[in-house]
Amino acid sequence: MVTDFAALEADATAQIHRMRRLAEDIAAIKVDHTSDDATVTAVVDGAGRLLDLRLTEGISRLSPTEFDSAVVTAASVAAQRALAVRGGLVEDFNSKVNKQQQGEQ
Prior knowledge:
It comes from Nocardia ninae NBRC 108245. The chain is α+β, with helices and mostly antiparallel strands.
């Protein structure tokens, strides 16, 4: 059995590049969501971590319960959207890897 080490190395290098690109794409995810009344904007990353929380003067009209709800809802919606983007990237990556393993390009 003869092994083409150059082809094996090229495949491994290509796989590493795809993995790095996936990591970079995930790291670049930033999603924001603004409440319906535009008083609260939450910004999250591809892991769903809160990066920024912006508040307008309109929060002064909210009760503490309404304020809590607006913050939690904005952060939750932003996180759900960010994780959906991340999921799409991972799904695309897995699809390409599976096609390559099956001999497709």
